[in-house]
Design brief:
about 25% strand
């Protein structure tokens, strides 16, 4: 079986897994003057400079891309990685009461 046909099967399998989300960290830049407006006067022990920009870390929920994850697990662990990933996702879905898209 060629690589293209394996990836096609992975895509089909990923569509059958339940839709889930994951939390990622997002870094944004905030102007110093906006930081001051929010009431913050110090950042890491230094006074906020209105002319500088500062990094702000936020958490954001995004849809979980099963195909991308399964492709990585296939590359790292082969077919066993795909089975392990799918089983872990289905177990988590059962625990969280999420319905599967399996036909």
């Amino acid at each position: 079986m060629g690589k293209a046909s394996k990836m096609k099967k992975l895509r089909k399998l990923s569509l059958q897994l339940p839709k889930m989300t994951e939390v990622i960290k997002v870094f944004t830049r905030v102007k110093g003057e906006d930081v001051i407006v929010q009431g913050v006067t110090e950042v890491q022990g230094e006074e906020v400079d209105p002319d500088l920009t500062y990094r702000k870390i936020e958490s954001k929920k995004v849809p979980l891309n099963h195909y991308k994850k399964m492709k990585k697990y296939y590359k790292d662990f082969g077919n066993a990685g795909i089975k392990g990933y799918a089983n872990a996702i289905l177990k988590e879905a059962d625990k969280s009461k999420i319905k599967s898209n399996a036909v």
